[in-house]
UniProtKB/TrEMBL annotation:
Superkingdom of the organism of origin: Eukaryota
Keywords, alphabetical: Extracellular matrix, Glycoprotein, Hydrolase, Secreted, Signal
Domain Alpha-L-arabinofuranosidase C-terminal, first and last residues per copy: 423-611
Pfam name, any one: Alpha-L-AF_C
GO aspect biological process, one term: L-arabinose metabolic process
Designated name of the protein: non-reducing end alpha-L-arabinofuranosidase
C-alpha cells in the first residue's frame, strides 16, 4: 500500500477547523464543568408553586423536632422560593434536639468532592426572627466523618442577610454532603445556598480537571450552550440568555425539559463567553429562534425574540457604555468578547416557520453587525442553499461504517456557497458502546475527509462533549467524569491528532491500496508555536484487522535531516475494536508516542491493525 504526498498542491485549513461543542446535557455543566457543589441551591427546582419539591435536599430530624416547607418569601424577585425551617427542639428542652442538631443536607450532584487541604466558600442567605447559631459542615460518606465545619452566628437577621464563610477540609471524600444544622428553637429561612471550591480555573468557576481536558484539545471554537437544550421541548423551557446573567443568586434557573433536569444557571451567557476566552477559542452562540420541539412563535410576534438576540450580541461585544455591554462590564469584563459567529436555532430547518424566522434574524443581525457570520440550520452539502447564510450546519450520528464512509461526503458538496459547519458528529449505537476504539477510528476517518475538503468545510466538533457518569442520557460522549474523576474516551483522544490542523496547510496526498479501502490518509504541514519549528504530519486510519506496511513517498518537500531525530510516530490503538476506557482503566486507549527512525522522503511505516497513526517529520 502506498501513499504519495505532493507538496506542490496545497490548501489552507481554517484556524477554526476543529473545536468543541458544549451542551448542557448529561449534567455537563450543572454538576460538571461548573464547579458549584450544591444541587438546587435556591430550592427552585421543584417549580414555583408551594409547597415545592426540594430534591435533592433532605431533612435531618423528625416531625417532632423540625418542620421544613417552602414559601414564596425570598428576597429575590426572579426566584422567589425559599426554604422555611421551623425548629421545635432546642439544646436545653423541653424537647431536646438530637446530638448534632436538626436541619437539612445537600448531597450535591451524586456526592460533593471534598479534598484535604482545599478551601470551599459557603454563601447563603438567611432570615430569622431570633438570633441564629447554625452549624455548617461538610460530612464524608465514610463513617459520616466531619471534614470541615463552621458556625454561622448572628444576633439580628430579621431581614434577609447574606452570610459567607470559608471552610478548609481536613480530609478527602468524593461523596460528601453539606449539612446545615442547629439546636436553637425558632424559625429560620434559607435561600441561595452555594458551596464552591475556591480553586477553580482562574477563579472563573470552571472545575480545573474538566477545564484542562478542554484546554488540551486547543479548540479553535466553542459552540454553546447546546443543541436541543437551546430549543427546549417547549418554548417556555428553552434557554433564555437574559435569565442567566447578573449576580448568580438572582438568576431564576430553568428546567431543561429535553434532558430533564434543573439548572441553576451558574454557567450562563457570560460564563460561556468567558470559557471561550479562557480556552482561546472563538465563541459560537447558538440561540433560540422562537422554535422549540413542540411549539413556535407566530412570525408576527417574533420581533421581541429578534431584539433579545441583538441584545445578547450587544452584551457579548458592545462597548461598556452600551446598555447591555455595561451589564457585561459590571460582571467584570469591560472589554468586549470576540463574538463573530451565531447560529440561528438547532436542527430546525424542517420545522414549521424556520425560514421565515431565520430571515428575520439574518436581516436584523447583518444590519446591526455586518461582520457577524450567520449559521443556518439547513443543509447545503447536496445543493446550494436558497437563502443567504455564511455557513450551514451539518450533523451526523451513525454507525462506524457509515461515518467512516462519510469521509467523502463533502467531495461532492457544492463549491462557491456557504461553507459547512459540522457542529455535531459521532459514531453512536452498538458500535460505539460507551466510547469504543472503532467509533474513534471511524470518526478520525471522517475528520480526515473534512480536512481533505477544507475548501468547503470550516469547522467541526464532536458531540456530546461531557457525560457525568451518574446521568448518562446520551451515549457515547467524549469526556466522562464523576464528582472527582475524569477520563477521555477514544473519541476524545482521537481529536488530539487533529488539533495542530487548525491553521495548517493541507498537501495533496493519494493512497494507492488496490483493494476496497479501509485506509484513509491526509498530509498537512503545521508550525509548532512553542519552538516555531515546522513539521509534516501524515495521519492514517487503518480500520482493517490486519497490520499494513505503508510505503510513503514525499515529493516537493525537503525533510530536515538535522532535526530528523525529532520525528515522532503517535498511535491510537488497542487489541479489540470494541475496547473502551473506563474509570478503572482510563488510559487503556490513549495516544502513544515513539521516536521514528530512518526517516526519508521514501520510507515505510507499519500501521497496526485498527489504528489511527500520525507521523510528524521536521521540515
Ligand atoms: O448531541 C446531542 C443532541 O443531538 C443535540 O442536542 C442535538 O442537536 C442532536 O440531535
Amino acid at each position: 500500500v502506498a501513499l504519495f504526498v505532493n507538496a506542490s498542491e496545497a490548501k489552507e485549513i481554517s484556524k477554526t477547523m476543529f473545536g468543541i461543542f458544549f451542551e448542557e446535557i448529561n449534567h455537563a455543566g450543572a454538576g460538571g464543568l461548573w464547579a458549584e457543589l450544591v444541587s438546587n441551591r435556591g430550592f427552585e427546582a421543584g417549580g414555583s408553586t408551594t409547597p415545592s419539591n426540594i430534591d435533592p435536599w433532605s431533612i435531618i430530624g423528625d416531625e417532632s423536632s423540625l418542620i421544613v416547607s417552602t414559601e414564596r418569601s425570598s428576597c429575590f424577585d426572579r426566584n422567589q422560593i425559599a426554604l422555611r425551617m421551623e425548629v421545635l427542639c432546642s439544646h436545653d428542652g423541653p424537647k431536646t434536639c438530637p446530638a448534632g442538631g436538626v436541619g437539612i443536607f445537600n448531597p450535591g450532584f451524586w456526592g460533593m468532592n471534598i479534598e484535604l487541604g482545599k478551601t470551599y466558600k459557603l454563601v447563603l442567605y438567611v432570615r430569622a426572627s431570633q438570633s441564629i447559631n447554625v452549624s455548617a459542615s461538610l460530612i464524608g460518606s465514610v463513617g459520616l466523618k466531619t471534614l470541615a465545619t463552621a458556625n454561622i452566628i448572628a444576633s439580628d437577621v430579621s431581614n434577609w442577610t447574606k452570610m459567607e464563610v470559608l471552610m478548609q477540609a481536613k480530609g478527602t471524600d468524593p461523596s460528601s454532603r453539606l449539612q446545615l444544622t442547629t439546636t436553637r428553637k425558632g424559625v429560620i429561612w434559607f435561600d441561595q445556598v452555594s458551596l464552591m471550591p475556591v480553586d477553580t480555573y482562574k477563579g472563573h468557576g470552571f472545575r480545573n480537571d474538566l477545564f484542562k481536558m478542554l484546554k488540551e484539545l486547543s479548540p479553535g471554537f466553542i459552540r454553546f450552550p447546546g443543541g436541543c437544550f437551546v430549543e427546549g421541548d417547549w418554548l417556555r423551557n428553552a434557554f433564555r440568555w437574559k435569565e442567566t446573567i447578573g449576580p448568580w443568586e438572582e438568576r431564576p434557573g430553568h428546567f431543561g425539559d429535553v434532558w430533564k433536569y434543573w439548572t441553576d444557571e451558574g454557567l450562563g451567557h457570560f460564563e460561556f463567553l468567558q470559557l471561550a476566552e479562557d480556552l482561546g477559542a472563538l465563541p459560537i452562540w447558538v440561540f433560540n429562534n422562537g422554535i422549540s420541539h413542540h411549539d413556535h412563535v407566530d412570525p408576527s410576534a417574533l420581533l421581541p425574540f429578534v431584539q433579545e438576540i441583538l441584545d445578547g450580541i450587544e452584551f457579548a461585544r458592545g462597548s461598556s457604555q452600551s446598555k447591555w455591554g455595561s451589564v457585561r462590564a459590571s460582571m467584570g469584563h469591560p472589554e468586549p468578547f470576540d463574538l463573530r459567529y451565531v447560529a440561528v436555532g438547532n436542527e430546525d430547518c424542517d420545522r414549521e416557520g424556520y425560514l421565515g424566522s431565520y430571515l428575520k434574524f439574518y436581516d436584523a443581525i447583518t444590519h446591526a453587525y455586518p461582520d457577524i457570520k450567520i449559521i443556518s440550520n439547513c443543509d447545503g452539502s447536496s445543493e446550494l442553499l436558497k437563502h443567504p447564510a455564511h455557513y450551514y450546519d451539518y450533523h451526523i450520528y451513525n454507525n462506524a461504517n457509515t461515518v467512516f464512509r462519510s469521509a467523502t461526503k463533502f467531495d461532492r458538496a457544492p463549491r462557491g456557497g456557504p461553507k459547512a459547519f459540522v457542529s455535531e458528529y459521532a459514531v453512536n449505537g452498538d458500535d460505539a458502546g460507551k466510547g469504543s476504539l472503532v467509533a474513534a477510528l471511524a470518526e478520525a476517518g471522517f475528520l480526515i475527509g473534512l480536512e481533505r475538503n477544507c475548501d468547503v468545510v470550516e469547522m467541526a466538533s464532536y458531540a456530546p462533549l461531557f457525560v457525568n457518569e451518574n446521568n448518562r442520557d446520551w451515549n457515547p460522549d467524549a469526556i466522562v467524569f464523576d464528582s472527582s474523576k475524569v477520563y477521555g474516551t477514544p473519541s476524545y483522544w482521537m481529536q488530539h491528532f487533529f488539533k495542530e490542523s487548525n491553521g495548517a496547510t493541507l498537501l495533496n496526498s493519494t493512497l494507492q491500496t488496490g483493494v476496497e479501502s479501509f485506509l484513509i490518509a491526509s498530509a498537512v504541514t503545521w508550525k509548532n508555536t512553542e519552538d516555531n519549528d515546522k513539521y509534516l504530519r501524515i495521519k492514517v486510519v487503518n480500520s482493517g484487522r490486519n497490520s499494513v506496511t505503508l510505503q510513503i513517498s514525499i515529493d516537493g518537500l525537503e525533510l530536515n535531516s538535522i532535526r530528523s531525530q525529532g520525528s515522532i510516530k503517535t498511535e491510537l490503538t488497542s487489541s479489540d475494536y470494541k475496547d473502551e476506557n473506563s474509570f478503572e482503566h482510563p488510559n487503556k486507549i490513549v495516544p502513544v508516542k515513539s521516536p521514528l527512525e530512518d526517516v526519508a522522503e521514501e520510507m515505510d511505516i507499519v500501521l497496526s491493525p485498527r489504528s489511527l497513526t500520525s507521523i510528524d517529520l521536521p521540515i
